[in-house]
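Below is how a single chain appears once it has passed through the pipeline. First comes the sequence as given, then the structure the pipeline wrote out for it. We keep one example in the README because the format questions we get most often are answered faster by looking than by reading.
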Amino acid sequence: MLKIGITGGIGSGKTTVCKIFELLGIPVYYADERAKWLMANDQNLMKALKEAFGEQVYTKDGKLDRGYLAKIVFNEQSKLNLLNSLVHPAVQKDGDNWHEAQKDVPFTLKEAALFFESGSYIYMDKMIAVTAPETIRIQRVIKRDRTDEQSVKARINKQLPEQEKVNRSDFVIQNDGSQSLILQVIEIYHQLLP
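Resulting structure:
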């Protein structure tokens, strides 16, 4: 069974594309959501995060203090690298276990924004990039996250340039409204069938 990675910059529409694949019966592992779950539930990862960032990374009732962690990692690249070095392997292992548990499907999808940045693309058989112009992406994220343009641009600047993701992927889905997302997904779906 093939492992297909799906990536794209913030606001590109990865989740929408994944939902279409799910309608076609393809299971999707959402790496970012799963990372949040693991940081709140995986005892080994929680212990490693406390050792790396201090006990106060979790509140008294045991919940991850995202604000505290964000202040640390987004102001210092070495701390962000440390966080990623702890979280990415845990997500990779969890994703592998999830993939192995899937049955009677031609392939699985793993959705992640930082496939190329984390190096985890090497574990995928094929990669799909979802792309949209930056202006559209910014507007989508402002609306979705109720944030401002400057914050969105700062997040975009922390990711690999979209064109590099496109260049390194096997398939590209244009999500700019110029062509049907559904038809693009169906075409890739058929190309990935055994």
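The chain has a mean pLDDT of 93.

See the next section for the split statistics.
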